[in-house]
């Protein structure tokens, strides 16, 4: 199969490449053409995943296809953007048809899940790596930025944290667990669900937002510095899942939630009066702290006293 047959068979023929809202031209010309309605802006984000760095060299191609697109789509969620389209630059050591078929199936599943149309890309030979660029649209001036948090706002997260980081010993086949524990953790690593609907609902409500990819504390640091405020996080309020607690233990679960990364859940700041409205539709949204005048991120114990982040018993990263 030559390069063009490969592109045609696995990508141009995929269901997600058959156009979509806003797609004027998809795969096949020198550029794709996207239409953005008057009064809206284009939100664009690129992520590269390199084998051996961002995912294990030997991994399931279907799961990799899902995860690669989910990671990118999560940036659209973080901006409150409505998904439009994506491109895929694929570097492959060889054109294994079985691998490509499974990869394309995983990509298709997540594309459908996120309403993203595949509109172009590039295919080259080399060490396995993937670069995905996602495009979304957002009403002009309404994108969720990192820079608007105000003293008095609540600090919220879109759900339980730490599962993906906690799953790493399972992903790397360093440890085993029963299916009841392993399956939900592995699912949170391999097919995170970008919080697109939540992000769109936060437009005009949240004062700042991002998606947690590098760990709660590090990412909250980005909001604090962009907004020139201090964020106080109550450790006891950080939501941890039952499977993570069972697998990693209470202390290590906290380490995963605070510093692990790969959560792809939203963290956002919200005026207190708007919380009930959001939690009615997203009961998994949790308040974990608040915004104050000052700078930096401070972790607090249940009595409100400053504490150091707990340290891990083993090193993931
Ligand atoms: P060019 O040489 O003009 O860059 P290519 O031959 O690389 O074009 O690609 C031909 C068409 O196939 C283009 O529309 C391109 O966007 C698309 N394409 C190439 N690789 C991929 C891929 N992995 N996934 C989706 N579309 C792709
Ligand atoms: Mg090209």
From TrEMBL:
Catalyzes the ATP-dependent phosphorylation of thiamine-monophosphate (TMP) to form thiamine-pyrophosphate (TPP), the active form of vitamin B1. Mg(2+) 1 binds at residues 46-47, 122. SUPFAM superfamilies: PurM C-terminal domain-like, PurM N-terminal domain-like. Pfam families: AIRS, AIRS_C. Mg(2+) 3 binds at residues 30, 75, 211. This is Thiamine-monophosphate kinase. HAMAP family: TMP_kinase. Reaction mechanism of ThiL seems to utilize a direct, inline transfer of the gamma-phosphate of ATP to TMP rather than a phosphorylated enzyme intermediate. Pathway: Cofactor biosynthesis; thiamine diphosphate biosynthesis; thiamine diphosphate from thiamine phosphate: step 1/1. Belongs to the thiamine-monophosphate kinase family. It catalyses: thiamine phosphate + ATP = thiamine diphosphate + ADP. Mg(2+) 5 binds at residue 214. The keyword Transferase applies. It is an enzyme of class 2 (transferase). One of its GO terms (molecular function) is kinase activity. Residues 28-138 form the PurM-like N-terminal domain. ATP binds at residues 121-122, 146, 213. It comes from the Bacteria. Mg(2+) 4 binds at residues 30, 45, 75. Keywords: ATP-binding, Kinase, Magnesium, Metal-binding, Nucleotide-binding, Thiamine biosynthesis, Transferase. It comes from Ectopseudomonas composti. Gene3D superfamilies: PurM-like C-terminal domain, PurM-like, N-terminal domain.
């Amino acid at each position: 199969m030559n390069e063009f047959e490969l592109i045609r068979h696995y990508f141009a023929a995929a269901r997600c490449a058959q156009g979509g809202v806003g797609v004027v031209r998809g795969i096949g010309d020198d550029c794709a053409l996207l239409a953005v309605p008057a009064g809206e802006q284009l939100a664009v984000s690129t992520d590269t995943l390199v084998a051996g760095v961002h995912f294990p060299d030997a991994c399931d191609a279907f799961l990799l296809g899902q995860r690669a697109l989910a990671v990118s789509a999560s940036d659209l969620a973080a901006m409150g953007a409505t998904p439009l389209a994506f491109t895929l630059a694929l570097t492959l050591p060889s054109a294994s048809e079985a691998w490509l078929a499974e990869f394309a199936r995983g990509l298709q599943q997540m594309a459908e899940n996120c309403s993203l149309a595949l509109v172009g890309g590039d295919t080259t030979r080399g060490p396995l790596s993937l670069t995905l660029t996602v495009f979304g649209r957002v009403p002009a001036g309404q994108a969720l930025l990192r820079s608007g948090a105000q003293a008095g706002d609540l600090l919220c997260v879109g759900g339980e944290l730490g599962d993906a980081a906690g799953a790493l010993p399972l992903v790397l086949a360093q440890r085993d667990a029963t299916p009841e524990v392993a399956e939900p953790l592995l699912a949170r690593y391999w097919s995170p669900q970008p919080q697109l609907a939540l992000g769109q609902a936060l437009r005009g409500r949240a004062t700042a937002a991002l998606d947690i990819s590098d760990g709660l504390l590090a990412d909250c640091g980005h909001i604090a510095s962009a907004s020139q405020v201090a964020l106080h996080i109550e450790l006891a309020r950080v939501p941890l899942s039952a499977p993570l607690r069972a697998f990693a233990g209470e202390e290590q679960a906290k380490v995963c939630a605070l510093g692990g990364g790969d959560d792809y859940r939203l963290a956002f700041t919200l005026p207190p009066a708007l919380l009930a409205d959001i939690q009615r539709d997203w009961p998994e949204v949790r308040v974990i702290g608040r915004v104050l005048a000052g700078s930096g991120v401070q972790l607090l114990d249940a009595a409100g006293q400053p504490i150091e982040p707990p340290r891990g018993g083993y090193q993931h990263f």
